[in-house]
Amino acid sequence: MHKVLVIVGDGAEVIDTLVPFYRLSEDYQVDIAAPAVRTYHMVQHHHRSDWDVTVETPGYDIQSTIAFADVDPSDYIGLVLPGGRAPEFLRYDQDLLRLVKVFMEENKPVASICHGIEILAAADVIRGKEITTIPRCQLDAELAGATYVSEGLVVSGNLYCCRFKRECASWMKAFVRALDVYGR
To answer: For 51, which of 38, 101, 125, 148 is 20 to 30 Å away at the CA?
Structure first.
């Protein structure tokens, strides 16, 4: 069975993480990678009309199965970068950035939602690509040399980006098709 890697850290968004985890687990072995093997705390994001920022509340916990430093990218055919607050901190992890660069260089399917783009920007792998992300991360993407497109799903080469959790279905459909082709 082919394997896919889902990235987590404290503050990963629940839906951005669990939708890919459960959908991909139907057809692939999914490993949860993080800075270390331990339990991580996810969050739920809510949009309230009386707040200027996203409200964040505690969500479910998730157990990682492998540390970034122990991942051999050749064992995996795809990579998922969920959103939430986790990417803001994970983008400094050199082992993670190394992995992201390998996946992108080898044209393996990579999926990013919401703040996941911050990891791609830090890895300097989106220069010249069209991407989408939440509007608040548009600047991060453009400073990294990408072209921001305000659409629900943007595919640029091996990169599959979406903005919001309500767009997860089309995002995962496109990503799974790419994994199926890559895995043949």
So the answer is: 148
